[in-house]
Specification:
7-stranded mixed beta sheet
C-alpha cells in the first residue's frame, strides 16, 4: 500500500479563511496542502462588502491593498426601513465592494504562490482522527500534523467533529441576485433594516452589477422568498433573475471551534458579525490565527495542543461577537426595533458609530459604554413588551 503523503498543515477549503491559513503557514515554513471541492474561480453567495477591517487583514496577511481591478470603492451609504430613507450619507468612511468569484481566486492563487499544494475538485469523505489521516473520494489519503477546517457553513470537518455543521434554526439564511447596473442606480451602498426579520436587505454596487439580497435569522423568516420578492421590487431589480440561496452563519458562533489538532476557521466556526454581516475579515483573521497556532504546536511537537492555543488567540474575536449579540438585542426585537430606527434616523452620532464599525475604525469593545447606557431602557422595553404593556414616549 502506498504511504500517505504527509503535510504539516492540511486545510479543507480555500476561501478567505483557508487561503489566509495557507499563506500564513507557508510563510512560517510549514508544508501545506489546501483541499477544495471547487476549482477556482467559483461563485459564492456574499454581498461582497469589504470593510476597513477586511482591508487591514488583506494587507497584513497577503501584503496586498485594495485596487481598482478587484474593488469598487464607495463613500455613499444609505440606510432604509421598508424603503423609507432613515439616513443618506454621501460622505461616509470608504467601504469597498468586491465579487467573491474574483477575490477568492486571487487569495487562492497567492496561497499557492507562497508554496501551498492545491488539491482542487476533490471531495473529502472521511477522517481518521487518531491517525491524523484525511481520505478523499478518489481513495487517496493524506496525513497531517494539524488540520484546519475552512470549508464554510456546511463544513464537512465540523460535521465529523460534532455530528452536524450548524443548527439551521439559530443561524441565518440569505437569498441574492446579481442585477445588471442601470443608469438609475446612483452608486450608493444600501441597507434596509426591514427587508427581513432579525436581518436586513442589501443593494451593493459592483463594477458591473449590483448585488441585491436579503438575509435574516432562519427560524424568524418563514418565507424568505417573499421577503426577497418584495425587496427586489423595492430596489427595482430584475424580477426574472433566479435567486441564489445559502445559510449564513451569523449569530451562533462555535464556542469551541475545534478539538486537539483539528481547528475550524471562518464560516465553519460561525465567525460572522450578526450586525454588520462582516465575514470576510473574520475569516481571514481566524485563518491566520489557526495557522499560527498550528506553527506553535508543531514547533513544540505537541500537535494536539493546537486547539487550546488557537482558542486563546480567538478570544478577542469571540468577545467582539458577544458584544455584537447584545447590540442585536437593541436593533432587532419587536419591542425595541422602532425605537432603534427612530434614534438612527435622528442621531448622527449613532449613524457615525455604525459607519465606524463598517470602516474598521472601532470595534464593539469601543462601544461598550454606550451599550451599558442603553441597557436599562432595553430591559424595560423588552419586559413591558412581553407582559403586554405599552408605554407612551
Amino acid at each position: 500500500m502506498k504511504t500517505a503523503e504527509y503535510f504539516d498543515v492540511i486545510i479543507v477549503g480555500s476561501g478567505p479563511a483557508g487561503s489566509s491559513a495557507a499563506k500564513r503557514a507557508c510563510d512560517a515554513g510549514l508544508s501545506v496542502a489546501v483541499l477544495d471541492k471547487a476549482k477556482f474561480p467559483r461563485d459564492k453567495l456574499c454581498g461582497g462588502l469589504f470593510t476597513g477591517r477586511s482591508q487591514k487583514a488583506l494587507r497584513s496577511i497577503f501584503d496586498r491593498d485594495v485596487t481598482d481591478d478587484l474593488f469598487l470603492t464607495s463613500r455613499h451609504m444609505r440606510f432604509l426601513a421598508s424603503g423609507k430613507v432613515l439616513a443618506d450619507i454621501p460622505d461616509a468612511p470608504a467601504v469597498h465592494l468586491t465579487m467573491r468569484r474574483e477575490f477568492d481566486k486571487m487569495l487562492h492563487d497567492r496561497a499557492v504562490a507562497a508554496g501551498a499544494r492545491a488539491f482542487l475538485g476533490v471531495v473529502v469523505t472521511g477522517f481518521d482522527v487518531p491517525a491524523s489521516v484525511v481520505t478523499l473520494k478518489s481513495g487517496q489519503t493524506l496525513r497531517y500534523g494539524v488540520l484546519i477546517g475552512a470549508d464554510g457553513v456546511n463544513s464537512f470537518v465540523a460535521r465529523e467533529l460534532y455530528g452536524r455543521a450548524f443548527n439551521p434554526e439559530t443561524i441565518g439564511f440569505g437569498l441574492e441576485v446579481e442585477d445588471p447596473l442601470t443608469p438609475e442606480r446612483d452608486g450608493a451602498v444600501e441597507v434596509d433594516f426591514d427587508a427581513a426579520q432579525w436581518g436586513y436587505g442589501w443593494s451593493f454596487p459592483k463594477r458591473k452589477t449590483a448585488t441585491v439580497g436579503v438575509g435574516g435569522i432562519n427560524f424568524r423568516n418563514a418565507d424568505m422568498k417573499s421577503n426577497m420578492a418584495r425587496y427586489v421590487d423595492q430596489v427595482g431589480a430584475d424580477a426574472s433573475l433566479r435567486y441564489k440561496g445559502q445559510y449564513l452563519p451569523f449569530g451562533d458562533y462555535r464556542k469551541r471551534p475545534g478539538r486537539g489538532n483539528i481547528l475550524l476557521a471562518g464560516d465553519a466556526a460561525g465567525l460572522v458579525d450578526p450586525i454588520t454581516g462582516e465575514g470576510i475579515a473574520l475569516a481571514m483573521e481566524s485563518g491566520a490565527l489557526a495557522a499560527e497556532a498550528a506553527q506553535t504546536a508543531i514547533l513544540q511537537e505537541k500537535q494536539h495542543a493546537a486547539f487550546p492555543i488557537y482558542r486563546a488567540a480567538l478570544k478577542p474575536i469571540h468577545d467582539d461577537l458577544k458584544q455584537a449579540r447584545l447590540w442585536r438585542m437593541v436593533m432587532f426585537p419587536d419591542a425595541t426595533q422602532a425605537h432603534f430606527k427612530r434614534a438612527f434616523s435622528k442621531r448622527s452620532e449613532l449613524q457615525r458609530k455604525y459607519l465606524e464599525l463598517l470602516a474598521g475604525e472601532v470595534g464593539y469593545a469601543d462601544l461598550r459604554s454606550d451599550l451599558m447606557q442603553r441597557l436599562p431602557k432595553l430591559v424595560w422595553r423588552l419586559a413591558t413588551h412581553r407582559l403586554g404593556f405599552s408605554r407612551t414616549s
